[in-house]
Design brief:
72% of the residues lie in helices and 0% in strands. The chain has 11 helices and no strands. The C terminus is likely disordered. Helix 1 crosses helix 2 and helix 3 crosses helix 5. It has one domain. The longest helix has 31 residues. The protein is elongated. The protein has 255 residues and is mainly alpha-helical. GO terms for molecular function: membrane insertase activity. InterPro entries: YidC/ALB3/OXA1/COX18 (IPR001708), YidC/Oxa/ALB_C (IPR028055). Keywords: Membrane, Transmembrane, Transmembrane helix. It comes from Apatococcus fuscideae.
């Protein structure tokens, strides 16, 4: 990544803040297919959730008395995943990909900053001119935390429609806490790292905003989830759970 950044800086002649921003956008576009796979899979998993809840409830009811219940439940769950073309592991693809990109950028920019590359010392703009040092005014760390907090409040739960309300709420709380604590824990990082962070977060915000439009979802083959439909799914799942929980033990196998 260091060589890539140095090469882009040399070829384009952009100042370092522009080089980092351009490379970040490029990296986001390259990994966009992985992100789409994850988002598409998350929506499909949501569609499959009522059937998965039904199988889980049956397994809980029959597991103690039916030795074959576990195998039957696993087979049925696999059939549901095939039916909806989804798999829990696919939901990790985008996260793993973006995590790898983040770590690569992070260590590359830290190494360049530690080497005090001359062009980076004066390659910033506005108040953050020296990209090899920490922000003396704490502006970039605060801006990064504020941007993350705004994203959490606006659309951090995008793609979690149909998930339990408690899960969505806890996710937003956890991300909000992260957005706040990231400021004091990151203020000593080189300012170049925050350029990457801010541009990357801006790309995520644009992505989530675009995915709010049905036409965009249709183009990328992402299922449209309606609030009424997901609530009905929860009601149905809850009813199934209660039914299997309250009935007496049985040795009947799953059909």
């Amino acid at each position: 990544m260091q060589s890539l950044l140095l090469g882009i800086h040399s070829v384009t002649g952009l100042p370092w803040w522009g080089t980092i921003a351009l490379t970040t956008v490029g990296a986001r576009l390259v990994t966009a297919p992985l992100t789409l796979i994850q988002i598409r899979n998350t929506y499909r998993m949501t569609q499959a959730r009522p059937e998965m809840e039904k199988i889980a409830a049956w397994m809980k009811s029959e597991g103690a008395t039916n030795p074959g219940a576990s195998t039957a439940a696993q087979e049925r769950m696999a059939q549901v995943w095939i039916k909806y073309d989804c798999n829990p592991m696919k939901s990790l693809v985008g996260t793993v990909g973006q995590g790898a990109v983040f770590m690569t950028f992070f260590f590359a920019l830290k190494s360049l900053a530690a080497a005090k590359v001359p062009s980076m010392v004066s390659g910033g703009t506005l108040w953050f001119t020296d990209l090899t040092s920490a922000d003396p005014y704490y502006g970039l760390p605060i801006l990064t935390g504020a941007f993350m907090l705004a994203m959490v409040q606006l659309n951090a739960a995008e793609g979690m429609q149909g998930q339990p309300p408690a899960m969505v709420k806890n996710f937003k709380i956890a991300m909000s806490v992260l957005a706040v604590v990231i400021v004091p824990f990151s203020y000593l990082l080189p300012q170049s790292v925050f350029i990457y962070w801010l541009v990357s977060n801006a790309m995520v915000a644009l992505q989530n905003t675009a995915l709010r439009y049905p036409a965009v979802k249709r183009y990328f083959k992402i299922p449209e989830l309606k609030r009424a439909d997901t609530q009905a799914s929860f009601d149905a799942a809850a009813s199934v759970v209660k039914t299997y929980r309250d009935r007496p033990p049985s040795k009947k196998t799953y059909q």
